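Run log // design_07
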């Protein structure tokens, strides 16, 4: 608030301030894996251990989005047109690049990496929209994204063997027969990420897109909807080997704690989708101190 008050009283638009906004935007885009500053993401996701990758895909992204909201929405409200334009360009680039690149991946970890790039673009719509409605949608989506993405990575983790990770589509063959619980859970996570109703992913995108339309960014929401349709292809593609007949009979061993974590994430992805307004109200309460109506 102090920064916002001091900057709002400055005369005109300082070119150095605009340069600072651009540089901060680039830095934040790098942290949230937004295109075109995402090039590190697929290689790091593929090379890092799966538990580390899972944390990076959610934890660092949430922290970076918190910084974006604090700096731009709370700290620079009088320069909203400038940073909204910058973030809109990044959002469109992220959604297009992330979804199109995910289609051609053969590694599940790289697919989820590019999926994360696209998801960053969706979340930026809520940041651009601003206000309690937009920021509440951002908080809602970040919270439910944790369950969807952590759950998907947890299933991939259980496919690993001592000789290394198994994150190819072929490694999912016959999972519906080898481990029905994991197969159902993976289906829930993929359909939630794709935004199928009544999953949490559907309502998360609905709240983000509604906030975008209300703020006058209908064109941005139209692009997001089109890219969401594209994403259905590669999310469903993951599920094809899961439920396809396969001669494989090797069981997927999992500890009680692993099964509990995956089932909990799956249940949360379903239940929070059946009762979305409760979590959204909590998000509105959390967003109101940052950007009061």
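design_07 sequence
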């Amino acid at each position: 608030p102090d920064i916002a008050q001091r900057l709002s009283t400055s005369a005109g638009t300082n070119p150095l301030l605009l340069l600072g906004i651009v540089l901060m935007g680039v830095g934040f885009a790098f942290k949230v894996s937004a295109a075109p500053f995402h090039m590190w993401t697929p290689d790091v996701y593929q090379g890092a251990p799966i538990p580390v990758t899972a944390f990076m895909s959610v934890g660092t992204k949430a922290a970076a989005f918190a910084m974006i909201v604090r700096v731009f929405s709370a700290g620079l409200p009088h320069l909203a047109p400038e940073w909204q334009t910058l973030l809109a360009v990044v959002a469109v680039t992220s959604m297009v690049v992330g979804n199109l690149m995910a289609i051609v991946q053969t590694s599940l970890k790289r697919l989820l990496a590019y999926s994360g790039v696209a998801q960053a673009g969706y979340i930026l719509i809520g940041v651009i929209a601003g206000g309690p409605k937009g920021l509440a949608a951002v908080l809602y989506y970040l919270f439910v994204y944790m369950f969807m993405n952590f759950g998907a990575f947890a299933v991939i983790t259980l496919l690993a063997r001592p000789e290394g990770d198994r994150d190819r589509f072929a490694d999912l063959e016959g999972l519906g027969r080898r481990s029905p619980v994991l197969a159902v859970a993976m289906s829930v996570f993929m359909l939630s990420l794709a935004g199928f109703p009544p999953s949490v992913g559907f309502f998360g995108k609905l709240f983000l897109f509604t906030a975008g339309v209300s703020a006058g960014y209908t064109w941005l929401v139209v692009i997001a909807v089109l890219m969401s349709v594209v994403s259905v292809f590669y999310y469903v593609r993951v599920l094809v080997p899961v439920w396809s007949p396969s001669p494989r009979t090797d069981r997927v061993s999992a500890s009680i704690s692993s099964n509990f974590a995956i089932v909990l994430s799956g249940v949360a992805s379903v239940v929070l989708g059946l009762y979305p307004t409760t979590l959204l109200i909590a998000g509105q309460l959390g967003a109101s101190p940052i950007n009061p109506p």
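The radius of gyration is 20 Å.
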